[in-house]
Amino acid sequence: MPGRPFPPTRLCLVTPEAPSPGFVAAFEAAVGAGDVASAIVAPRADGAADEELARMLAPLALRKGCALIVAGDGDAAARLDGAHVEAGLAALRAAVARHHPDRIVGAGGIQSRHDAMEAGEAGADYLFFGRLDGDGLPEIFPRALELAAWWAELFEIPAMVMGGNSIESVGEARAARIEFIALRRAVWDHPDGPAAAVATASRLLAATPGTS
Length: 212
Description:
Blueprint: E1 10-14, H1 23-31, E2 36-41, H2 51-64, E3 67-71, H3 75-79, E4 82-85, H4 89-99, E5 104-110, H5 113-121, E6 126-129, H6 142-154, E7 159-162, H7 170-175, E8 180-183, H8 185-188, H9 194-207
Parallel strand pairs: 1-2, 1-8, 2-3, 3-4, 4-5, 5-6, 6-7, 7-8
């Protein structure tokens, strides 16, 4: 959109499906290695919110100025910075009523432009395109990138897109002028470690221009 200010694309970290015993230390190193705006505590394998992990990560995120958001709308969301809701429009509206204006409520599970419009009208603070575990490819999943770029171009509510399992995928989000990119495997499985991954991602985001 001509004349519209283009803010830098920022990082969001998504916790892995099965965090290792040393994950808390890895998280602390990662959020301290670059511009990490937020982190989403993904659900456990059984689909329940991982409130124990959220409790351990909370002081580390706070110290680094990283918003900590928990998937689902359980009690942990009320104690942290907010909730990431993927259970549909009714659940999103309930979370907005429960947590606004003090906490963040993000909307996931978006499959279409219609879904995105409804989530925006329901009061979501950000729209998440893709799945929290949708980083099976090196690049951003094409449909998620398409929807996130469309939303970011037209609307003020920030878009967040799930990145690929390669750090280089952050350049796709930056070039498409998407406000946030979420990373999971690209960080936690990086051969040089999570801190190196975040530092590299931050450099790539700073170096990649957005499209006009």
